[in-house]
Amino acid sequence: MKDVYILAIESSCDETSVAIVKNGCDVVSLAINTQIDTHKKYGGVVPEIASRMHTEAITVVLEDCLDKAGMQIKDVDAIAVTYAPGLTGSLMVGVEAAKMLALIYNKPLIAVNHLIGHIYANNLEDKLEYPLLALIVSGGHTELLVMEDDYKFKKLGETLDDAIGEAYDKVARVIGLSYPGGPNIEKLALKGKHTYDLPKPVIDDTYDFSYSGLKSAVINLVHKESLRGNSIRKEDLAKSFQDVAIDELVRKVELAFNNTGLNTLVIAGGVSANKYLKEEMEKVCHKHNVKLLIPRLLYCTDNAAMIGAAAYPKYLKKEFSDYSLNVCSRVDIV
Amino acid sequence: MYTLYIDTHYIKLQLVLFKNGKVEDEIIKSDGKHSSYLVSSLKLLLERNRVNFDDLDSIIVINGPGSFTGVRLGIVVAKMVGFCKGVPIKVLSYLQAVALKYDKEVMIGIKDKNGVFGGKFNNRHELVGDYFYINNKDINSYKDILIDDEVLLDKVYNFMLNKRSINPHVVKPIYVKKIEVDK
Fold it and tell me: Rounded to two decimals, what is the model's pTM?
């Protein structure tokens, strides 16, 4: 079969990225322009600024990707783009650019869900074999799914309130760490001990998660200690928070291993870059003889290569979009 | 000799195809859904005139002021054509486009929902000072402002004819209204 090259665009949050991916698994080239340093000044992503920066960067990143690949746009077979979920204004820049490439070069246009992209990031490392368990952990989502085949999902559970990444960011802010909060909590936790008694999120036998109680407990604790004139041991609080937050994921994943008998676990989303999460998942997977797939750091964070990987099955099925494709800030996988 | 004009700065979406300096065809949509219609309207405009992107000699794109998102969409479309096909891009503010009708010093205002974008132009149609935004409640203090949002396309074409084009990488909108984090 002829090789299939897909040019993919990702602009759902604060990274402008363009990639060319061969057959859904080989990254020919990947270019990323991150806005983190700009948003750091504001303590989080400012949607309007993100949209402006995507507009300025889009052709520069596209050129960078093409130069690295030594390819021209006319040589690719399709154009893929993240259309949801994410920041509306940011998504629009990528979608409009992708539509124009599809129009100018008369290529099929493929709309990709960002979260599904994170799952397919694992296909860039090791071929996904179905059925498998997929755990999505990001700033906007915490979900546990069974993936029966390409694009065939069954939801086991999801967060009832905050996503784990959101909880990390809010806790980071409360204890005075800069954006992005997740990696900073993780760094600080390495130096701390689990000394603070924080509530476990959901003690039941469902696959649902909850992080707002844990987040509120940290906020209340910091507030109370401040009123009493006591200082917080930030390292210990970071460690205590992280232990409880990750333990909740491990517990639900283990429940799914026991109930489903599936023997592959895929972890996807920005929080999958967390090393402590990786270590704990390695332990539980080893215990249950389950194959664990977590992408390397480059593919854990937002990137267009994962969008190119997720677009490939849609290309094979000819699931193409027309030029009326619109963005969607919130969308479920199932 | 084809020139494409793109205006997405507010609710109206206007695409115009000039041939040898005359309006050959245009598409106007007035429902504000630029993200749904911009690319398909462009495709329709070119196809029904049997024009390819390679046939374009230049693009004139309105770079604001107006709806942040609306302006951005037009700019992205222009940038992609400019980058992919090497078509020179020329940018023009909508206020300046309106001012081209007047051969005297004039302060032009264009309305949006909450106020008026303004700019003062000399008799050579050059901007004097900076663009500004006035909230509706303060508009009465600007006695000299002329509220007008009509553009004469032949004036735009002739004014832009000898303007320099801009590298697609650096084409960007003008943002006049302050956003919350800048206040």
Answer: 0.96
